[in-house]
Design brief:
The protein is an alpha/beta fold and 367 residues long. The longest helix is centred in the middle third of the chain and has 30 residues. It is globular. It has two domains: 181 residues, Rossmann fold (3-Layer(aba) Sandwich); 172 residues, RecF/RecN/SMC, N-terminal domain (Glutathione S-transferase Yfyf (Class Pi), Chain A, domain 2, Up-down Bundle). Helices cover 37% and strands 24% of the residues. The strands form three sheets. A six-stranded antiparallel β-sheet has the order 2-1-4-5-6-7, covered by helices on one side. A six-stranded mixed β-sheet has the order 8-12-13-3-14-15, with helices on both faces.
Length: 367
């Protein structure tokens, strides 16, 4: 069983005035000069899964300039033995609207037919940037396993913002805090459990696979103390922390204080202290593990997006990556500046050339 995007059309999306691709389910190697619009195609594909896409951009930011007329994506998704027609639109900067088989649908409904995972150059600093970036990375993986994870994250952030507003205003009446802390505890504990579940899936998938990429030993740590062990414990911890939080003007307890800690298992070296090449290899290992775990969970591999990944790998590692993708059966979309970066794929992939003329991206299937 496979998951594939067998047709894709972009209209007034980013640099693409109009582009249409017919696909046969093989991996897609997209190449062309920098700035031509290759990553924009990957971003379009990423929107066929729950969430804000690989750039985390607003709908307004995705509109082609200078027209800013709104944009539309259409796709045909083969999933679990069925074929679905999906349309994603945004009119003049309005929030995205999703239709599946001509019926309005939610983000969670989209997650029932398509799962997408990705690796983009912005993630290369994952191990050395702040904890917030690592939480987003982990939440994206948790969302791939459970599309409702996004709802827990949004509910927690909303309740925390409202509580933080009370803290900054130095409100001391306990009655104002109880309901918000109950909401934070309920959604926050679900958020934490989703992250723990994702780490378990990833660790298991890494340990059971023979791969050319190194294993990353992962742990979820708190910046201070430990994460409360239950919803009730989290609610109590928030109540007990009010006086400290009043002084700080923000919540000091909860899953927003978590961090993803990684170690290069074979060397016992923290990921943050590894070489740039080792850090990249660890990231690729996690994306492949995510895809393998999803394949086992939902019965088919997800769509995999790899932006400029080949440029950071030597020929041997590139060949190993392409072999793993092919063995997994994933409909992978990859970008690079030249066709030589995909030579090891041979006829296992389609090739698409993207160029730019007068500010408009041009897309051509070449093989």
């Amino acid at each position: 069983m496979s998951l594939a995007l067998t047709a894709l059309t972009l209209s007034h999306f980013r640099s693409h005035k109009r582009a249409a691709l017919e696909l046969d389910g093989r991996p897609v190697a997209i190449y062309g000069p920098n700035g031509a619009g290759k990553t924009n195609i990957l971003e379009a594909v990423s929107l066929f899964s729950p969430g804000r896409g690989l750039r985390g951009a607003s709908a307004a930011d995705m509109a082609r300039r200078p027209e800013a007329l709104g944009w539309k994506l259409t796709g045909v998704i083969a999933s679990l033995g069925r074929v679905h027609e999906v349309a994603i639109t945004s009119d003049s900067g309005a929030a995205r609207q999703v239709q599946i088989d001509d019926k309005a649908a939610s983000q969670i409904a989209l997650g029932r037919i398509a799962r997408v995972v990705w690796l983009i150059p912005a993630m290369d600093r994952l191990w050395i940037e702040g904890a917030e970036g690592r939480r987003r990375f982990l939440d994206r993986m948790a969302l791939s396993f459970d599309p409702s994870h996004a709802e827990a994250a949004l509910a927690y952030e909303k309740a925390m913002r409202e509580r933080n507003r009370l803290l900054k205003d130095q409100v001391r009446d306990a009655g104002w805090y109880g309901a918000l802390e109950a909401q934070m505890a309920q959604s926050g504990y679900k958020l934490h459990q989703g992250r723990v579940m994702a780490l378990e899936y990833l660790s298991d998938a890494q340990m059971r696979a023979e791969t050319a990429f190194p294993v990353a030993q992962l742990d979820l740590v708190q910046s201070e103390g430990e994460m409360p062990g239950s919803e009730a414990d989290l609610r109590d911890a928030l109540a007990e922390s009010r006086f400290r939080d009043l002084a700080a003007g923000r919540a000091l307890v909860g899953p927003h204080r978590s961090d993803l800690y990684g170690v290069y298992a074979a060397k016992g070296v923290p990921a943050k202290d590894c070489s740039t090449g080792e850090q990249k290899a660890l990231l690729i290992s996690l994306i492949l593990a995510n895809a393998r775990a999803l394949s086992e969970q939902i019965g088919m591999p997800p769509i995999v997006l790899l932006d400029e990944v080949a440029a950071h790998l030597d020929a041997g590692r590139r060949a190993a990556l392409y072999d793993e993708i092919s063995a997994l059966g994933a409909h992978a979309w990859m970008t690079g500046t030249g066709p030589e970066l995909f030579a090891e794929l041979n006829d296992r992939a389609m090739r698409v050339l993207v160029t730019e003329q007068d500010g408009i991206s041009q897309v051509e299937v070449v093989a």
